[in-house]
Design a protein that fits this description.
single chain, mainly beta, Methylamine Dehydrogenase, Chain H, five-stranded mixed β-sheet, 38% strand
Length: 452
């Protein structure tokens, strides 16, 4: 099994987003070490050498992540793994407790909040999807400061009952916000609300827009897995023009967001599609490896990575979660599978790795905790209600939100420990966002800032 091998001198060779992904894995392992000191040091001198290495890496990671600790600039956060360095977050809340502000949002959208400094960005679809808009809110007050019509569609078509015309989450870099509405269009706007460019990517998204874009250097990378054609494309962030485009081949529709990961010092884009997961060089689009799960389609969960593995879901109708070994090339077969899970695998919610464990939430709200390296199950409990949102790890706690406003807070670990159950009114298919000491939860009618 190949794993990323790091030296401090190589940190500045990677784009910030890939570097942060690697830092999150280090943070996970550091947490594992401080909670398990005896087992860690039991191997003597070798363990001490590893400890020095971890401490050096953690110091370097802190140099990069502390400055951006308050920002949550894309789907599942800056590390793309659903982790935050935020502290002082609330454990309990209700409509009348720990709500700093609540802002009604026009239309419907399931994009999560992206946050940079005082600005919070979401998208929404008004007039049954005819008007596709980007909203900028003041993070401190909740006031809507900008309401920009990015696109207007005469015939937006229908969407799945669990979807909206504004489900992909915006990505923020510097003074640019990138928004994606599936086949309806993709655009770049300034943080002051001016449209820089917009373009349309041709594919039939059928159930509506799903996967969010990801940034790598000067490329905005998007999965375009329609019923008619399936490809991955990188757009120039300054112009919106295609830099590279890779057809998947024989495939099916999907709605997943790609994940960037460092493998042996080189960045890879892990892209889940119908029937295939494919890894690309994010700069050139060159294919590195592919793994097939025949007849899998409508994949939604974003891949996560850790321990030299990437975890991907095969999608509908009967999902399988695969733990695939990183560091391989070409057409992969079953020897690339470290382990797999069929019962309770997710169709919509992305996995979460914390310490040595991976947490999975099925569509019908079954939470499963397994050993991330072996797949051994530790426990399984009910969330209560169906689940589409992806879980969040922050402030030492795991937050899991169902589709009807209930968020369960649990402690990470090999035994189940429930800390709180919180409820707000409305439907909740959007994933939680976090910045500084506050959580941001979006319902079908409003967005809340939740804090102590």
């Amino acid at each position: 099994m190949a794993r990323a091998e790091w030296t401090a001198s190589r940190f500045d060779e990677l784009p910030v987003n890939v570097f942060l992904v690697s830092c999150w894995e280090l943070v996970q392992r550091f947490g594992m070490i401080i909670h398990r000191p005896r087992s860690f040091f039991s191997s003597g001198q070798k363990a001490c050498m590893m400890w020095r290495g971890y401490m050096g890496l953690m110091w370097a990671a802190c140099l990069v992540t502390v400055a951006g600790a308050e920002d949550w600039t894309e789907f599942r956060g800056p590390g793309q793994q659903g982790h935050s360095t935020a502290t002082g977050l609330p454990t309990t809340w209700s409509e009348t407790e720990h709500i700093t502000w609540k802002t009604a949002i026009p239309g419907l959208g399931w994009s999560s909040a992206s946050i940079k400094g005082p600005q919070l960005w979401i998208t929404t679809a008004v007039d049954d999807g005819h008007s596709l808009r980007a909203l900028r809110l003041n993070r401190e007050t909740g006031q809507i400061e900008k309401d920009i019509e990015v696109l207007h569609k005469d015939d937006p078509g229908k969407v799945h009952k669990k979807n909206s015309h504004a489900s992909p989450t915006p990505v923020i870099r510097d003074d640019r916000v990138f928004v994606h509405f599936g086949k309806h269009g993709t655009a770049c706007v300034t943080t002051e609300g001016e449209i820089v460019w917009k373009t349309e990517l041709e594919y039939e998204h059928r159930h509506g827009p799903g996967g969010s874009p990801v940034l790598f250097e000067d490329r905005l990378i998007i999965n375009c897995d329609g019923t008619d054609t399936q490809y991955v494309v990188a757009l120039n962030t300054e112009t919106g023009e295609p830099v590279w485009k890779q057809l998947r081949g024989e495939a099916s529709m999907a709605y997943s967001t790609p994940t960037l990961v460092d493998v042996n010092g080189s960045p890879q884009l892990i892209s889940v599609g119908g029937e295939w997961t494919i890894a690309y060089e994010p700069k050139t689009g060159k294919e590195i490896w592919r793994f097939r799960y025949p007849e899998g389609y409508s994949n939604v969960p974003r891949p996560v990575t850790g321990f030299g593995l990437t975890f991907v879901s095969s999608g509908y109708n009967t999902p399988t979660l695969y733990a695939l070994k990183l560091g391989l090339m070409g057409d992969l077969d079953d020897t690339a599978v470290a382990w797999k899970m069929t019962k309770g695998a997710p169709r919509n919610s992305s996995p979460l790795i914390v310490g040595e464990e991976i947490y999975i939430v099925s569509d019908n709200g079954i939470i499963t905790c397994l050993d991330a390296q072996s797949g051994e199950q530790h426990w399984q409990e009910r969330l209560g209600g169906d689940c589409s949102a992806s879980p969040l790890f922050a402030d030492g706690k795991i937050y899991i939100t169902n589709e009807t406003g209930l968020t369960k807070v649990i402690a990470p670990g090999k035994t189940y420990q429930e800390l709180a159950v919180n409820e707000l009114p409305g439907r909740t298919l959007s994933s939680l966002s976090v910045a500084d000491h506050a959580l941001y939860l979006r319902t079908d009618e409003a967005i809340y800032r939740i804090e102590e």
